[in-house]
Amino acid sequence: MSFSPSNAVRAARDETPGEARSVSEIAGAIKVGEPGSFAALGTAFLTRLPAAPVPDPYLVGISGEVAESLGFDAQAATGPEKDAFAAFFAGNPTRDWPADALPYAAVYSGHQFGVWAGQLGDGRALTLGEVEHDGARLEVQLKGAGRTPYSRMGDGRAVLRSSIREFLCSEAMHHLGIPTTRALAVIGSDLPVRRETVETAAIVTRVSPSFVRFGHFEHFYSNDRIDELKALADHVIDRFYPHCRDADDPYLALLDRAVQTTADLMAQWQGVGFCHGVMNTDNMSILGLTIDYGPFGFMDAFNAHHICNHSDTQGRYAYGRQPQVGYWNLFCLAQALVPLFGANLPEEGRAERVVEEAQKVMERYKERFGPALVAKMRAKLGLEIERDGDDKLANGLFEIMHANRADFTLTFRNLSKLSKSDASQDAPVRDLFLDRAAFDAWAAQYRERLAHESRDDAARAAAMNRVNPKYVLRNHLAENAIRRASEKDFSEVARLLDVLRHPYDEQPENEAYAGLPPDWASDLEVSCSS
C-alpha cells in the first residue's frame, strides 16, 4: 500500500493531535517548521533532504507506549497498512514532498575522544518534524536513513544489530527512570551494509523533546557565528527552560541547568552500572538526556575500569571516568556559551567577571553530583536515615565487588535478602563473591549500620527492590534477540522489550532474564562501527 506524502501532509495538517490512526494521519500529525521548533531556526542549522529508500522494509519492533505518546495506536504498524507504516518509517515515501516538509539533518561540531573534530552533524539521521500530543511536543527522527551532507566518509546507514540495541536500551532506560531519548520502532531491510562483516540495514525511529547537543553550541562558537549561537540558546531557553529568562543572566542560567541535569544523569548512570561508550560532546544532550546509543553496556561483572567500547583504546570513557568526562564536556559547553554571558555588564572588566561567574556555575557540578550519587547509593543499600560514613560503606562494597568481579545488578538486587540479624540468609548475595571472608567482613559493617534503621527487613527489602533493578539489558540478552531477528524471528525483541518495561518487578515467568550471563557473553564486543 502506498500514499502520497505531500497529500498526507496537506490533508492532515489540521488533524487533532491524538487522533492519528492511519499512516496518512500519522504522517500529517508530524509538523515541520512550526514556530518555536528547532526547524524554524532556519538553514544555518540544518539541511533539508529526502531519506534514501531501502528495499522491502519490514517491522522489527515497536513500542506501544511511544506510539501512544505520539497520539496513535501501535496496531497501525501491524494492521492492514503495515506495509505503508514500514515504508514511512523507513523514509521510503520520498516523492512529492513539499519543499518545506522535507526531513532535515542538523549540523553541529564537537570534541571526539577529547580531540576537537570540527564540523560533524547528523551523518545518518533525518528528523521528520515534531508531534504535539497531550501538551507535549516531541521530535521524530529516523536514524539510518541514508547519507546527508554531514556523513563525511560514512554510508548513512545503521544496521539491524545496532538498531535493535538502541531500540531496546532507550526504552529500558526510560523504565529504569533515567532521562533518555526514546524509540518508536525499528524497521528492517535486507539491504546489505558493510561493517566488520556484511550486515543488513535498519532504521530506528527516535523520539525526543529535542536532539540539541553540546556540539550544536560548539559549532557556532567555533565558527564565530554569535547570532546563530544566541538564536540556538534562545530556542532552548524559550522552549524548555523559560524560567531562565527571569535570571540576571539567562545564558548563565542555561549553563546552570545543563550542569545540574548532566550531574544528575551521571549519578544515575553510575547507579545502574551503565556505560555509554562514546561520551563525545556531540553525544551530550542539552536537556540531560541519554542520547546516541552506539557502543554501550550494562556491566555484568563489576569492574570500576570497565570499557564497553573496544574502539576506546585509551579507556577515556571507562565506567569510573564517566563523571569526570561529564564535567569536562560541560567545560566545552561553557566555553561555547561565553560570548553570550554578561550582556548587561559594563564592558570594563566584563571578560574577567564572565569567567568568574561561569566558574562558579561549573563548581555546582561537584556540589550536585557528589550528593546525588551518595543519595542514590544510600537508597540502593536500603538506608533511610542519613549518617556519616554511608559513603565509605558504599565504597567498601564497590571495592570488594571490583576485587571479586561480582555481578553489579545481582549484587544490589540480592542484597535486599540480607537479614539484619540472621547471617544464614546471606547466600544469594554472598555466593556472588569468591572471597567470602571479604564479603562477611563488609556484611558485618552493613548489619551494624542497619541497626540504626527503624525499618524491618521486609520494608527495607521492598524499598531496595524499587531502586535496584532485577532486569537490565545485558549484552547477551540483546545478542539473543539480534540473532533471532537476523533470521526474521522478532518475537524475542518483543518479549525482551516487555521484560524491560518492568525492571523492578519479580516477573517469575522471566527469571531466566535475570540470571548471570553465559560464558560466551564475555566474548561480546561493541564498537563505534555500528
TrEMBL record:
According to the UniProt record, where is the region Disordered? 1-20
Which sites bind Mg(2+)?
N283, D292
**What keywords are assigned to this protein?**
ATP-binding, Magnesium, Manganese, Metal-binding, Nucleotide-binding, Nucleotidyltransferase, Transferase
**Catalytic activity from the UniProt record:** L-tyrosyl-[protein] + UTP = O-(5'-uridylyl)-L-tyrosyl-[protein] + diphosphate; L-seryl-[protein] + ATP = 3-O-(5'-adenylyl)-L-seryl-[protein] + diphosphate; L-histidyl-[protein] + UTP = N(tele)-(5'-uridylyl)-L-histidyl-[protein] + diphosphate; L-seryl-[protein] + UTP = O-(5'-uridylyl)-L-seryl-[protein] + diphosphate
* Cofactor(s) named in the record: Mg(2+); Mn(2+)
Binding of ATP, residues: G121, G123, R124, K143, D155, G156, R206, R213, D292
* Domain of life of the organism encoding this protein: Bacteria
Annotated active site residues, numbered on this chain, are D282 (proton acceptor)
Q: Name one GO molecular function term.
A: ATP binding
The record's family statement is:
Belongs to the SELO family.
Q: Which HAMAP family match?
A: SelO
Q: What's this protein's function?
A: Nucleotidyltransferase involved in the post-translational modification of proteins. It can catalyze the addition of adenosine monophosphate (AMP) or uridine monophosphate (UMP) to a protein, resulting in modifications known as AMPylation and UMPylation.
Q: What is this protein called?
A: Protein nucleotidyltransferase YdiU
Q: Which organism is it from?
A: Caballeronia fortuita
